TrEMBL record, chain A:
InterPro entries hit by this protein: AAA+_ATPase (IPR003593), ABC1_TM_dom (IPR011527), ABC1_TM_sf (IPR036640), ABC_transporter-like_ATP-bd (IPR003439), P-loop_NTPase (IPR027417), Type_1_exporter (IPR039421)
Membrane topology: Multi-pass membrane protein
Transmembrane segments: 33-54, 66-91
Protein name: ABC transporter ATP-binding protein
Region (Disordered) location: 578-619
Compartments where located: Cell membrane
Keywords: ATP-binding, Membrane, Nucleotide-binding, Transmembrane, Transmembrane helix
Limits of the ABC transporter domain: 342-572
SMART domains: AAA
């Protein structure tokens, strides 16, 4: 359950990917490196030049010795400033460019993941990859990468210069290097799990909080304030304690770095002492080496500290590169079928490979026909709908449209409106244009009018331009359903699979939605999952499912006449006033109710007379 | 300073209640800075007294001094930083808890804020406020470092020291003039990046809808556009930030170079020694950092203050309901609304006697919404909402909600299990000494709400995990879970609002019978109000009240109303 189903790239894979990206940008990579080295070199010139000045002072030179040093220092400052700025910009440009490509490709792949993979993985994982992980890398590219690279280059150049002064001085300064490495090797393996635990604790803290706030009505209704507050307090305290222990670890790490600094500085001064005594180097050269080393302390500490942030970004990178490694769904850009009859033959399906959800389901929706799927919860209707729309592949059997397997159809041939509605965040017209990117405003209003949504859309604060969805103007579930239907109208597919499109709306809203659905389906081949039996009444043909199998099929009148399971459903559906105030039965559980009692005949007749005029509208 | 703002109060309290850790940590941080400032000075001394003279004893003594300074530096850093971090973490935690307590206030926070905003206040703003405890020691220790270095420089050479003390602040002040421009560019970049992230998240969340209409290409193209905008903004921000970086690098190099050259001139002319010369070079290099801290910290503190103001706005926000203390009169499980005007409701009268099962049908969905909302949070209405003869808003909140439970239509579930979501209040059976009896009640509630079959579909039954907000359950399953928990809570008066919109016809019938059996059986004295247009549910009620345009249009049994009232028939017609 906690195992990530989406793949995560291994370190080697991530590095290979990054290497390929860098090689694909030879100019950018090379230029960044050259300018970076140049900037680091100019940064150490003053210390070196001043070291020389120390010797002049000792030699009792005149003030004219100052001039060349001054020229060098001023020139290095000016050129070095420019180079530093340009270098940091180049690093960031390179990183940001690679990141932009990465996030675009990751999203592209994510949106084409097979539905089965997505169902198993859960959307949360994918959402956090395209969201939080991209942000984490972005932050690293902005804050960590430039300092990391410039500190590394500076350290390399400084050590190189010290070796250039005298290899023994260089070696003395380099004593600090293994100590730093030891410090890191002590710290990173301890820090990584600690930081991971901290992130989990912080995520739990926000999850608890979000749930409490979003469910505030329920919290209030059940007087759960104290309990939820206690829960939030507990997770917040845990996050605090973990942060504190992580920080204690960090301070011990910094202590090791302090030790490394002292060792390096002491070694340079001691070796310098010996070398000066032997006249191998001048006092100025020793001063220059010590100053170079001291100047490194700040950037190197920064470098050490950013290592774990870089590690974080590396983890995020692995998760994104992992997404790129998945096989997207292969929509064969295949041939558009000439006929539009949807046929399922002997379809079997199982989500987990053991429990069959569908067994030997065969059905046919003739071109232009409407077929309704009926059955109680768990009967397998949604699975049939998903297979018919090509979102799931059947385990056994075939699903074809005009003889072409549905998963090889060109995109946009079959539309599936699922139970879950989603209003895309942004202006409402942008939402609709997902279905038809270049739709004119007239086309949009026509589609909205067709599904009966134009009135309320025009009444929104800014009409079609109103920002809806997450963070925007809230829409009711029924309005969201209408938008989904309007998208179908704009898409104009040959075949529509409609899955419980009227569920969340309440009776009054449901009637409007049924009409909207009927309007959207007009002239198309349609498979409709019907919870409200009025949708079934209106269909050309009804298929009744139970426990993954088709138990009955035929037109409404025949099925009602047959007196089998559909007739029982219909009886429950039409049960009304005749029952009087309160049904007599108190053994109210599940199943038996269905079988007990056909409604009186006059009742049924009345229902038929009152039945909604959907059939007429569809013709 | 005329009036102290609420944010300032929050900040002052943060300082006061973390005083011990803050001030001891600050003192330690000051010592740490002092030691750090001594290091370049000591380098000069060691070169001067040890390396230059070839005196081994002097070298060893002074290196020992350097080691001692490093020891103090390391120890003070470790303990100072830990203290300060503890103070910051503790303050952030306390602020979060206070914020949560306010947001969850039983008498309902009056706030038109989005969840996202509230979340931002409890995370980012609480944290930024607590960072004040980081700013104080930073400023203090920067002042210490500047003072020590300045004293050292002044002792070596007064003109040199004065130049340093004047030149560094001037240069930093010049550099800081560009801060607003950089902040603007960075914000623009963050906004654009945030937009790209939000779009990606939104598209993946709506993936089923996208896939259903084969709109992945259109979505990818849209994301591409936004991603490229974000990239352009990043590069714009990078140019500004790095132009600043270049300029500041250049200026500080000129500054420390200039000071060193000046010191070099003094050394060449014999006014200072070689060792002093080296000390000046090191100190000038070192001083740039604490001066930099002094230059930017006012900006941070402004951010902490702004965050504190936002925290204060939530902590100090009003609550909607008055602190009611009344109790419903004895035996009063009776609900009466007289001439209630609230939103679209105009002069509504409604009377529910104890033990009655009443259906409420509203021709306009908004009326139903308003009624459900009013019974949950009785505020902003005229007329009387009486519970047991007492005004509902005047009744003690705990008591009121215990007697009158209004189940929200939009079902909110919490991470946990099916069981933990149904037995939301473990004390549901407080009056029963016998645990088994509770199980019985649980079973009854599960059966009545037709949850048993949801549980049976899962191998773990009632222990089936429920993910965040119940996302792993279908709409119909969520509704049934909500109904079961309401039935298990067994309030004397239960208000249900469209409880079965997402369940199938057979189940709905079972639910209607279940509610009737559980709450209105032979010995039950419960009252139930179901706001719905479902004929299946309405057929199970004792009596139906039909609301036309915000007021009662008709009353009677469901059968009577179906028979005689056209408007009613049209409203409940399937």
């Amino acid at each position: 359950m906690t195992h990530p189903i989406l793949p995560v790239a291994g370190p080697r894979e991530s590095r290979a990917w990054l290497g390929a990206q860098l090689r694909a940008r030879p100019g950018g990579t090379g230029g960044t490196l050259v300018v970076g080295l140049f900037a680091a070199a100019t940064a150490i010139v003053p210390a070196y030049a001043l070291g020389l000045l120390v010797d002049r002072v000792r030699a009792g030179g005149g003030t004219d010795a100052l001039v060349p040093v001054a020229v060098v220092i001023v020139a290095a400052a000016v050129v070095g400033g420019v180079a530093t700025g340009v270098s940091a910009h180049l690093i960031r440009r390179l990183g940001a460019g690679i990141l932009a490509d990465l996030r675009e490709r990751a999203l592209d792949t994510a949106l084409r993941l097979p539905a089965a993979v997505l169902d198993r993985a859960g959307r949360g994982d994918l959402v956090s990859r395209v969201g939080a992980d991209v942000s984490a890398i972005d932050r690293a590219v902005t804050e960590v990468l430039p300092t990391l690279i410039s500190a590394l280059l500076l350290a390399a150049i400084s050590l190189g210069t010290m070796i250039g002064i005298d290899w023994r001085l260089g070696l003395a300064g380099a004593v600090a290097v293994p100590l730093h490495v030891l410090g890191l090797r002590w710290y990173l393996p301890r820090a990584a799990p600690a930081y991971a635990a901290e992130r989990v604790a912080i995520a739990q803290r926000s999850q608890q909080f979000v749930e409490s706030v979003q469910g505030i009505r329920t919290v209030h209704a059940y007087r759960l304030e104290d309990r939820h507050l206690a829960g939030i307090t507990a997770v917040s305290a845990r996050a605090r304690d973990i942060s504190t222990s992580v920080f204690a670890l960090y301070t011990r790490f910094v202590g090791r770095i302090h030790g490394a600094e002292l060792a390096g500085l002491g070694a340079v001064l001691a070796v310098g002492f010996l070398l000066v005594r032997r006249d191998a180097v001048t006092l100025g050269e020793v001063s220059a080496a010590a100053l170079l080393l001291h100047r490194l302390f700040g950037p190197v500490l920064h470098l050490m500290v950013t290592f774990d942030k870089a590690q974080d970004a590396g983890a995020s990178l692995a998760r994104l590169v992992g997404v790129l490694g998945t096989d997207p769904e292969g929509r064969g850009g295949g041939t558009a079928p000439t006929a539009h009859d949807l046929v399922l033959t002997g379809v079997g399906f199982s989500y987990d490979g053991t429990t069959p959800v569908l067994r030997d389901v065969s059905l046919r929706v003739g071109s232009g026909q409407v077929v309704a799927l009926v059955g109680s919860t768990g009967a397998g209707k949604t699975t049939v709908a998903s297979i018919a729309a090509g979102a799931l592949r059947p385990g056994h059997g075939t699903a074809t449209l005009g003889g072409v397997p549905v998963n090889e159809l060109p995109a946009r041939t079959v539309a599936l409106v699922s139970q879950e509605t989603h209003v895309f965040a942004g202006p409402l017209d942008e939402d609709l244009r997902l279905a038809r990117p270049h739709a004119t405003p007239e086309e949009l209003t026509a589609a909205l009018a067709r599904v009966g949504a134009l009135t309320w859309v025009l009444a929104l604060p800014e009409g079609l331009g109103t920002v809806v969805g997450e963070g925007g103007h809230p829409l009711t579930p029924a309005q969201a359903q209408q938008l989904a239907l309007a998208r179908v109208v704009l898409l104009d597919p040959a075949v529509v699979v409609l899955d419980e499109a009227t569920a969340e709306a309440g009776s009054a809203g449901a009637r409007d939605l049924e009409q909207a659905a009927a309007a959207a389906l007009a002239g198309r081949t349609a498979l409709v999952v019907a919870h409200r039996l009025t949708q079934a009444v209106a269909a050309d043909h009804i298929i009744v499912m139970d426990h993954g199998e088709i138990v009955e099929s035929g037109p409404h009148a025949d099925l009602v006449g047959a007196g089998a399971s559909y007739a029982r459903l219909w009886a429950a559906w039409t049960a009304r006033a005749a029952d009087g105030p309160g049904p007599p039965r108190t053994d109210a559980a599940a199943g038996p109710v269905v079988g007990s009692g056909d409604p009186p005949v006059p009742q049924r007749r009345q229902v038929r007379r009152d039945g909604p005029p959907l059939t007429a509208q569809r013709e | 300073m005329s009036k102290i703002s609420a944010g300032t109060v929050i900040l002052r309290r943060a300082v006061a209640r973390n005083g011990r850790r803050l001030w001891s940590g600050t003192a330690l941080a000051g010592v740490y800075q002092l030691c750090a400032a001594l290091v370049p000075i000591l380098i000069g001394v060691i070169v001067d007294r040890g390396v230059a003279t070839g005196d081994l004893t002097a070298l060893l003594v002074w290196i020992a001094v350097l080691a001692a300074v490093y020891l103090v530096l390391a120890v003070t850093y470790r303990f100072g930083a830990r203290r300060l971090q503890r103070a910051i973490a503790e303050e952030g935690h306390q602020l979060r808890v206070e914020l949560a307590a306010r947001i969850l206030h039983p008498r309902v926070l009056r706030a038109e804020r989005h969840t996202g905003d509230l979340l931002a206040v409890t995370t980012t703003d609480a944290e930024y406020t607590s960072y004040l405890l980081d700013h104080i020691p930073r400023i203090t220790s920067a002042l210490v470092a500047v003072t020590v270095s300045a004293v050292a420089l002044l002792l070596i050479s007064p003109p040199l020291g004065l130049t340093v003390l004047v030149a560094i602040p001037v240069v930093l002040a010049v550099l800081n003039r560009t801060a607003p421009l950089i902040a603007r560019r960075v914000k623009e970049q963050q906004d654009q990046a945030g937009r790209a992230t939000a779009l990606a998240t939104d598209l993946v969340t709506g993936l089923r809808a996208l896939r259903g209409i084969g709109a992945q290409d259109a979505a990818v193209e849209r994301y591409h556009r936004v991603s490229r905008h974000a990239l352009a903004a990043t590069l714009r921000a990078s140019r500004t930030q790095n132009a600043y970086l270049g300029a500041s690098t250049m200026l500080s190099a000129l500054l420390s170079g200039g000071i060193a050259l000046m010191a070099g001139w003094f050394a060449l002319t014999g006014r200072i020694t070689v060792g002093q010369f080296i000390t000046v070079i090191g100190s000038a290099q070192f001083l740039v950092e604490p001066f930099g801290v002094l230059a930017v910290v006012p900006g941070w503190t402004a951010a902490a203050r702004a965050a504190a103001e936002r925290v204060a706005a939530v902590v100090g926000a009003d609550v909607v309901l008055p602190p009611g203390a009344a109790a419903p009169r004895s035996g009063g499980h009776e609900l009466r609304l007289t001439d209630v005007t609230y939103g679209p409701l105009a002069g509504l009268r409604l009377h529910v006697r104890g033990g009655e099962f009443v259906g409420v049908v509203a021709r306009r969905p908004a009326d139903a919404e308003a009624l459900a909302r009013l019974l949950a949070v009785p505020d902003g209405h005229t007329g009387d909402v009486l519970l047991g003869g007492e005004r509902l808003e005047a009744v003690d909140r705990g008591r009121a909600r215990q007697v009158l439970h209004s189940e929200p239509h939009r079902t909110d579930l919490f991470t946990g299990t099916l069981a933990s979501n149904i037995a939301l209040r473990d004390d549901g059976g407080r009056h029963d000494d016998d645990g088994r009896h509770d199980d019985g009640r649980l079973d009854e509630a599960l059966r009545a709400a037709a949850v048993a079959e949801v549980a049976h579909l899962h191998p773990e039954g009632l222990r089936m995990p429920v993910t965040e907000r119940g996302a792993n359950l279908s709409g119909g399953q969520r509704q049934r879970v909500a109904l079961a928990r309401a039935l298990l809570a067994a309030p004397p008066l239960l208000v249900l609002h469209d409880p079965t919109t997402a369940v199938d016809a057979v189940t709905e019938r079972a639910v209607a019978d279940g509610i009737r059996a559980l709450r209105h059986g032979s010995d039950a004295g419960y009252g139930t109000v179901v706001i719905t247009t479902s004929p299946t549910l309405l057929a199970a009620t004792d009596r139906v009240v039909f609301i036309g345009d915000g007021a009662v249009a008709a009353e009677g049994t469901h059968a009577e109303l179906v028979g005689h009232d056209d408007s009613y028939r049209r409203t409940v017609l399937r």
